[in-house]
Amino acid sequence: MVSRMFRIETGDDKDRRDLLRRRLLDANTAASPVLRALRGTPGERELPLHVWALAEDGALAGGLAGHTWTTWLHVTYLWVDGRHRGTGLGSRLLSEAERVAREERDCLRSRLETWDFQAPDFYRKRGYEVVCVIPDYPPGVTEYTLTKRLLAP
Question: How would you write 92-108 as a 3-class SS string?
C-alpha cells in the first residue's frame, strides 16, 4: 500500500463546493443507469413549486415552497399563520401542490421532512407514511421523513 500525504483544510469555498458537486454528479451518473438516463432531459432539473395563500388585505396567510425533480414533489416548507391554523388552509396548500405536481409535472410521489413538534400527524392524516426517524436531530427533537404516493383524485 502506498502512503500519501494530504493537506486537510476547512472553510467555505464556493468554487471547491461547485467542483465537488460536479464531480459527485458525474460519479453518480456513471454509477447509475437511472441517473444516466435523466442526464440532459427536463426531468434532470429541479423545478420550483410554490403555493401562496393571501389574506383579504394581501398579507401572507400561508405558503408552501418546494420543488419537483424527476417524478417526485419535495415539500421544503409549509407554513400557516397562527390566525389561520385549524381552518384547513394547510391542507389546501398541500393539496394544491400535490395536484400541480401530479397533473402538470407527472409526479408520482411526494416527500418531506418535519420535526416532532411541527406536523407529523398533520401529514399522516393526509396519507403520508413515515419512512425515516432521526432522534436528537437537533438534540431533544426527532425529525421525520415522510412520503406519499400521489394518486389521481
Answer: HHHHHHHHHHHHHHCCC
